[in-house]
Amino acid sequence: MTFDLLKKAVTEEPVLKLPDYTKPFQVQTDALDFAIGGVLLQDDHPVAYESRKLNDTERRYPIHNKEMTTIIHCLRVWRHYLLGSRFVIQTDNVATSYFQNHKKLSPKQARWQDFLAEFDYVMNYKPGKTNVIADALSRKAELATLTRVTCDFADRIKEGLNHDPLMKNLMEMAREGKTRKFWVEDGLLFTVGNRMYVPRWNSLRREILKECHDSKWIGHPGTHRTKAIIERSYYWPNMRSDIDAYVRTCLICQQDKVEQAKPAGLLEPLPISERPWESISMDFISALPTSEGCESIMVIVDRFSKYGMFIPAPRDCTAEEVGRLFFKHVVKYWGLPRSIISDRDPRFTGNCEDHVKCYRIRRSGNHNSTFTPVYISGSKTMGDPPSPLLSVNPETFIRHWSSIEFIEL
């Protein structure tokens, strides 16, 4: 007898069946004060069930927003079934059935409409008496908690509103529709990812850092994990910098955690130059007293002979000016070196390359500058320049006249 009852239960409803994509789907939903539920049907036979509890924020929604929350949740779960197929959404709330025709929408409702635009659907009203399956799912007894934890954190955030000018300005902009990155719900400010804005007031931010890092349920995670935990639910400006500083100064982490980074290796000396002015180093001494309009010194040292040149330079010395000084004081007398050792100063990595492009200077992979020397020789005098060079490009020749050193052979 028991086996026959079991066989009958397995072969009849509400056993789920596989979807047939040649037939239309039906989505029936329902929402209560503490839970939501829905069922996916084909030919009035269930294909899938879905239900979950509402969080504290969702429980404060008006009924039509709860019904829309149910629809959006079910469509996200069954997206792989419904995308590309035409289906019918059946809800037992009359106002929700006219959601497509609403003119004035809150930021959350506007995001819901953007999501619904992906689907080909029709939304109909179905009385609650006939919507029994979804109604039963939303009334599951185990979803109703016997005890409930109370928290005054949201109230403290509202209290801190008047103490954070930035939060007040953002809430005013959100209410006036001047920004889509922030919106207001129940007197709280939210941003992308449904994250709550935490004002700079009292110790709210530090309490969040402590709870998400020091709690025994968390176990003192590293910087990246702590960021991931906090960024799920909260937001405030410069939050990542605050998290870095908190984790870096945590006493327990400093005492108990083992350093995972590899020890620093030995310094690698630069190759020794074989002749003078083959390799040079360049740097700046800045923030000096003003003298004849110059407030910094461009230091150039030959790495072979240690001969140094100290060139006055303006305070805001551009990359182009660096190139000009380099050719005027170094290249003109010593020629182009094979390599230049410098730091990542923008004056060395900027448009200085463009200024010396005509000399076939190129950048090397180790952040130095590698040069291909160019020599001009002849038996002409300064008053009688080489006519072939002058006739080919007179403007370029005149611009670099000071860089030429004529050698008698």
TrEMBL record:
Keywords: Endonuclease, Hydrolase, Nuclease, Nucleotidyltransferase, RNA-directed DNA polymerase, Transferase. The keyword Nucleotidyltransferase applies. GO terms for molecular function: endonuclease activity; hydrolase activity; nucleic acid binding; RNA-directed DNA polymerase activity. InterPro entries: DNA/RNA_pol_sf, Integrase_cat-core, Integrase_H2C2, Retrovirus_Pol_polyprotein, RNaseH-like_sf, RNaseH_sf, RT_RNaseH. The keyword Nuclease applies. Residues 272-409 form the Integrase catalytic domain. Pfam families: Integrase_H2C2, RT_RNaseH. Gene3D superfamilies: 1.10.340.70, 3.10.20.370, Ribonuclease H-like superfamily/Ribonuclease H. It comes from the Eukaryota. One of its GO terms (biological process) is DNA integration. This is Integrase catalytic domain-containing protein.
